[in-house]
Amino acid sequence: MSESRTPDTATAQNAASARYPVTDRVREAMAVSLRGVDELLPQAAWEQKLAKSEATGVPLRIKLGLDPTAPDIHIGHTVVLNKMRQLQDLGHQVIFLIGDFTSMIGDPSGRNSTRPPLTAEQIRANAETYYAQAKLVLDESKTEVRYNSEWSDPLGARGMIQLAAKYTVARMMERDDFTKRFAAGTPISVHEFLYPLMQGYDSVALKSDLELGGTDQKFNLLMGRHLQQEYGQEPQCILTMPLLEGLDGVEKMSKSKNNYIGITEAPNTMFAKVLSVSDELMWKWFTLLSFRSLDEIATLKKEVDAGRNPKEAKVLLAKEITARFHSAAAAEAAEADFNNRAKGGIPDEIPEITLAGAPLLIGKLLLGAGLVASGGEATRMIEQGGVKIDGATVSDKGLKLEAGTFVAQVGKRKFARVTLA
């Protein structure tokens, strides 16, 4: 960035030192900002930014940078999006930054090896899908979509060298994942040092007031504060959100762990998966995923502690999440479907499969119908009493089914209407 476009340092410092009154509305906004967060740094500076915004009527600029490394997102990813939506509802401007340039470097955060870069075609396709899903949470009218190639490409080699001169190798090596990799003798490529610099430079280019991220992004977020000061800007505050435990209540939500809820999953599946979380984990999910007020959630928890069935609270959460990504009608239908299954009923809509080879061994039928991933899984489910044909539990692994049409069920949620010829 050239000197002619660099803000005057003294002006930025004077603006930062000005004090604005902390009103009740500012305190309410501060409470919303702090809801469910891991860290908000520095809190006093963010309170003053909120006070300044109220006094001047100028919305704050809130940045979330996402590298589109995968096309689909799950509700664990929406924890940060929910926080952005809460801040949008306070009147602030959200910047949904797609890291099409930084994706070509690969974020080293939390990595024990160099992340493979994506092609431009992969980045473009993933970004389109990602934002289409993010819009299910964000207020599109208050969302500015940007790509960091807008300012990163024009930076050029000269600008990159000037940017790299604003941070030391010693400071870079304080980063936990770099320290561990260096100590273990694991290679660290020079280009990986550029990632946090480029993410920080995004904050300079966008004049960000607040940057959000997961707890694993703290180093990169603080880099934005450092570089903004280097360029004479008032430094952004940073807000990190905790990682959401998945359905197992232990590991963070992840597709690789198969403990996730995809936001494009069918409403019946989404509803049932939310109801499967533990009573204890439910309250963290309420805090991070629900748009109910903290007072409402606290009241609900008191009622459960006093004897109300926790399932009733969980149903409210399941319906809210399902309605957000589908519709209120779909959430109501999902609840009815779940209740029907709980009574031993069959869902209204199940896959219809046609198979050949009668008489067919039960394991091969389940595999052919897509109800199990392997013959081993079919055997385990039969041994556990988790397989039913037309409502009757199957206990014989050697069962052969003759030609006909029947409903096969595995576990509580997997059904198929199989026509065997």
Describe this structure in words.
The structure is a single chain. Helices cover 47% and strands 14% of the residues. It is of the alpha/beta class and 421 residues long. The protein folds into 3 domains: 3-241, Rossmann fold; 267-342, Tyrosyl-Transfer RNA Synthetase (Orthogonal Bundle); 352-420, RNA-binding S4 domain (Structural Genomics Hypothetical 15.5 Kd Protein In mrcA-pckA Intergenic Region, Chain A). The strands form 3 sheets. A 6-stranded mixed beta sheet has the order 1-6-5-2-3-4, with helices on both faces. It has a 5-stranded mixed beta sheet with strand order 7-13-12-9-10. Helix 5 (120-134) links the parallel strand 3 and strand 4 (143-147). Helix 2 (24-34) crosses helix 3 (43-56), helix 6 packs across helix 9 (190-206) and helix 11 (267-275) packs across helix 15 (328-342). It starts with 8 loop residues before the first helix and ends with a strand.
N→C terminal distance: 70 Å
Q: Which percent range fits the helix content?
A: 40-55%
Average of the residue pLDDT scores: 87
Segments where pLDDT lies below 50 for 5+ residues?
A: 1-15
Annotation keywords:
alpha/beta, 5-stranded mixed sheet, Tyrosine--tRNA ligase, aminoacyl-trna synthetase, Rossmann-like_a/b/a_fold, 3 domains, 17 helices, EC 6.1.1.1, Structural Genomics Hypothetical 15.5 Kd Protein In mrcA-pckA Intergenic Region, Chain A, Tyrosyl-Transfer RNA Synthetase, protein biosynthesis, 47% helix, disordered N terminus, 14% strand, 421 residues, Rossmann fold, 6-stranded mixed sheet
